[in-house]
Each structure stands twice: as structure tokens, then as C-alpha cells.
Design brief:
Strand content: under 5%
Number of domains: 1
Largest sheet: none
Number of helices: 4
Shape: elongated
Order of helices and strands: HHHH
Radius of gyration: 16 Å
Helix content: over 70%
């Protein structure tokens, strides 16, 4: 069942915040991957590439196409990736 208009508007209003929070996580993970505590720098590059590739997939899955007919799929993806907290979900109505 599609989300109500009010819920869709609420999700669109927090989209930038959710994306910004995820981007901060990506940056933190990338720095930790490139600057490992142990091992050579060359060992970090394949991990870094994998981190960026996975991050790109998550951004595409969760943040592409926020049109109203598809926003419920975005919400499911956000929940699956743990990018939206339950306190924000409580604001939604079905």
C-alpha cells in the first residue's frame, strides 16, 4: 500500500539530512580503509574500492528517484540499510 501524501512529503523533507548522514559515514569508513593501523598502503586500496562501490550501490538504492510512486521502496531500502531511525519512522502514516 503506498504511503500517504503527508508521509511522502515528510520523507522528502528529510532526504537531504539522511543522505548527508550517510555521506559522513562513507567518508569515515573510507578514511579508516585507506589508513589502516596495520599493513601496507597497497593493501588498503582494494578495500577502499570495495567500500566506495558498496556506498555507491546503497546511495542508488536508497536515494535515487524520490517520486511519490516509488518512495515506499526507498523507505524499505533506508530501513534495510539502517539509514533511517525508528523515531523518524514514527512520523509516517500509511
Amino acid at each position: 500500500m503506498p504511503l500517504e501524501e503527508r508521509s511522502s512529503k515528510y520523507l522528502r523533507s528529510i532526504e537531504k539530512t539522511l543522505l548527508n548522514n550517510h555521506c559522513h559515514k562513507i567518508k569515515r569508513d573510507a578514511v579508516l580503509t585507506v589508513n589502516p593501523d596495520q599493513g601496507s598502503e597497497n593493501e588498503g586500496h582494494p578495500k577502499f574500492y570495495k567500500c566506495i562501490k558498496e556506498s555507491d550501490r546503497v546511495i542508488g538504492e536508497c536515494f535515487d528517484d524520490w517520486a511519490r510512486p516509488r518512495i515506499d521502496i526507498n523507505l524499505l531500502s533506508l530501513r534495510k540499510q539502517l539509514l533511517i531511525k525508528s523515531v523518524r519512522i514514527e512520523h509516517l502514516s500509511c
